Amino acid sequence: MTVPGTAVRVRPAPRDRRGRAPQARARARVTAALVATVVFLTAIAPLATDLYVPAFPAVAGDLLATATQVQLTLTTFFVGMALGQLIGGPVSDQHGRRLPLLAGVAVMTLASVLCAVAPWIGLMMVARFVQGFAGGWAMVIGRAVIVDFATGARLVRVLNLIAAVGGIAPIVGPLVGAVILQLSHWRMSFWVVAALGLVMIIAVAVAVPETLPRHRRRPGGLRAFAAAGRTVLRNRRYVGYVLVSGSSMGAVFAYVATSAFVLQSMNGLTPIAYSIDFAANAGGMTLAALVAARLAGRIATRTIIATGQFAALGAGLAMLVGAIWFDTPLPLALVAFFVLMTGQGLIGPNGGALASAEVPEHPGTGSAVLGFVQWLAAGTVAPLAGLGGEHTAVPMAILMIACLAVSLFGLLVLARRT
Q1: Is 299 helix (H, G, I), strand (E, B) or coil?
Q2: Hey, is 15 helix, strand or coil?
Q3: Which helix (H) or strand (E) holds 300?
Q4: CB-based burial of residue 28 (10 Å sphere; 0-12 exposed, 13-18 middle, 19+ buried)?
Q5: Is the model's pLDDT at 273 over the cut of 50?
Q6: 68-77, 157-166, 315-324: lowest mean pLDDT where?
Q7: What is the pLDDT of residues 109-164, one digit of tens each?
């Protein structure tokens, strides 16, 4: 696999036993390291959230906060993620990818330290906003790096692979968070994220070349971004695929924000048992993304997306019936959550890939708008899911159904075949 436009230069030399020139081998190594680093960048959002999701009740007690206030730390993080991606994309289109990416990772690391020492819930919300802003900034630039050198079915495969491998974070995150909660304090979760931030700085410095040469950069900053934004938003199919991916993200974070209370407060699961179930659901999402990557180019991507949408919608309807008439029994909640997350593995990466494919002339702007919508949906839905308190799943189920209905509208109406 080669990376067009990289700055790697190798002197001519005899070819190896497989007939490859040293330059091709060097570019292959750069590409592998690049994809691995983007996976790392993509994993930071779920990791920064999932590490401390099992500790929500403990955070509320330690900071003298309500369940809704603790959920608002998710909201501020997601709003920061949305704005960071909205601004980071055009900045990287103007100034290149490498230096803005390094800056974003560094700020995220410092914000993680502030989260670890926050003495009250208000400061935690602010620190989470900055952490999310910097993480979203880094994430959208990492995605733009991929779009710089991949198109078509290859782009779909790479993005699905990144989503699948990056799915290790939501599998490992809650398990590690639960272990930390058992052995130490919930604040240690943020010290872990800060340490990983230092590792990410090194990884970006070593493995990410400048993938946007000067002649391809777009001057004008945010003003140019606004013009480019109007261009991409006039593309009806792009808007449709953005809704596909963004709305399904909202459904997932209705689950993320509320599942700890549904499974622990309502059904009596321990933090360890909850974390194991959370990891299993993330594993289903990862497996689905891997399957989708294998099917890229063989089965229509739209068909794969629709399969995930209808499965997740069925899970939402089952949750609503269970919450209204059966007091949300544990087996129903476990199955519905697993189906929802598995469906997201088919929807999210594929919807994002098709959205990017619709606006190849504006990769940074396209990624920024997509990321903004995804994380704005997550930040809006998360506190709404907890409006009913700790002992009902009805708001969560209604939000899951509504989000998936909007996702289907995006696929079947706005992004319909012409």
Answers
A1: strand
A2: coil
A3: none
A4: middle
A5: yes
A6: 157-166
A7: 999 999 989 888 889 999 999 999 998 888 888 877 877 766 566 666 676 667 66
The pTM of the full predicted model, rounded to 2 decimals, is 0.71
pLDDT digits 0-9 by tens, 330-367: 999 999 999 999 999 999 889 988 998 888 777 767 87
Burial of 411 (0-12, 13-18, 19+ CB in 10 A): buried
What's the CATH fold of domain 32-414? Answer: Growth Hormone; Chain: A; (1.20.1250)
Write out the H or E segment, with its range, that includes residue 388: none
Tokens matching residue 353: 């890939």
Q: Decide: helix, strand or coil at residue 252.
A: helix
Whether 297 contacts 283, CB under 8 Å: no
Which helix (H) or strand (E) element contains residue 216? none
The rounded distance, in Å, linking the Cα atoms of 262 and 257 is 10
**Identity of the amino acid at 347:** I
**Is residue 133 helix, strand or coil?**
helix
3-state secondary structure at position 329: coil
Residue 348 CA to its chain's centroid (Å): 9
**Residue 290, helix vs strand vs coil:** helix
Instruction: Return the structure tokens found at 44.
Output: 């930071």
Copy the structure tokens of residue 172.
Answer: 């490992």
CA-CA distance, 134 to 143, in Å (whole number)?
Answer: 14
Among candidate residues 54, 291, 30, the one with its CA nearest the CA of residue 149: 30
If DSSP codes are grouped into helix, strand and coil, which group holds residue 175? helix
Q: Is 17 exposed, middle or buried (0-12, 13-18, 19+ CB in 10 A)?
A: exposed
Q: Do the Cβ atoms of 293 and 35 come closer than 8 Å?
A: no
How far apart are the two ends of the chain, measured CA to CA in Å?
33
